[in-house]
Amino acid sequence: MRIILIGNYSPDRQESMLRFAQLINSGFRDAGHDSEIWQPTIRFGSFFKDARSGVAKWLAHIDKWILFPLELSWRVRKEMARHANIRFQICDHSNAPYLRYLPKKFTVVTCHDVLAIRGALGYKDAYCTASFTGKILQKWILRSLDGATLLAAASKLTLSQLKALSSEHQGEKRDWRVIPLGFNADFRPLEAKQRNHLLVGAGLKPETPFILHVGSDQERKNRRMLVDMVAALGNKWNGKIYYAGQGADEKLLSYAESFGLRDRVVSVVGPDHATLLALYSGCEAFIWPSFSEGFGWPLIEAQACGAPVISSNIEPMPEVSNGAAIHADPTKPDEFANAFLKLQDATIRTDLIRRGLENIERFRPSRMIDAYLKLHGLKNN
Question: Measured on CA atoms in the order 167, 171, 172, 176, is the torsion positive or negative?
Answer without folding.
Answer: positive
